[in-house]
Amino acid sequence: MIKLADISTMPPPQLDEEETRKKTKKLVEKLGKLQHKLIASGSHAVLVVFQGMDGSGKDGAVKNVFQDCHIHGINVHSFKKPTEEEMDHDFLWRVHKNAPPKGMIHIFNRSHYEDVLIQRVHKWIDEKRVDKRIEAINAFEELLVFDNNTVVLKFYLHLSYEQQELELQERIDDPEKHWKYNAGDWKERELWPEYMRCYEDAINRSRIPWTVVPVDKRWYRDYIVATTMVEALEQLNLEFPGIQEE
Q1: Cα–Cα separations (whole angstroms), residue 99 to 16, 120, 164, 200, 217
Q2: The domain that contains 81 carries what CATH number?
Q3: pTM score, two decimals?
Q4: What range defines the domain where residue 112 resides?
Q5: In a domain, 183, yes or no
Q6: Tell me: the pLDDT tens digits for 190-214?
């Protein structure tokens, strides 16, 4: 049972930042090479899920870790407020059509978990619907794994309450980050304890495990995500296919 309050949002104190950054650079390069094999082999799909509170660094993780990946083999989708058409369907309708085909890495910057987090925190759905949706999410992810050789990697970006305040304030103070500013983020911050409760519950009820990534130091976030990605793709034993006879 994962208890988020018991997990530090900081890197281990003995870890050297400079050395870790060097390791991350090599991992990012290795990930690019593994992705090349993934595209060529066409044997597996990869779904990467990033979830976390506002200011946890989802955009930065995508930018830094996947920078050596070939653009033709990667797709990033951000799930925002559902459109009217999406609201007329079940909550997974808009998600399933964005699932990765074989040979591709698809990244969800926020994901299908929004519909059991935000809506639950704000009491827009009752607990019976929460239970049904969590079960549907588990079945959906297992279907991707079983039916399409999809590797599902889920990262919860574990941010401290104190660090979030600094990150949100920076969006006000730094002109280059004004475009990220949303007054609603401060209102959501008032619901922090309830978000932590709902995140923790969703993580513990997931049948495909999450990686909890401490993100108060971004260099450590990148290292953990890159390490997890490389280890997962290495386990696939991907190979370049030979010349196919007609």
Answers
A1: 37, 24, 30, 24, 30
A2: 3.40.50.300
A3: 0.95
A4: 17-234
A5: yes
A6: 999 999 999 999 999 999 999 999 9
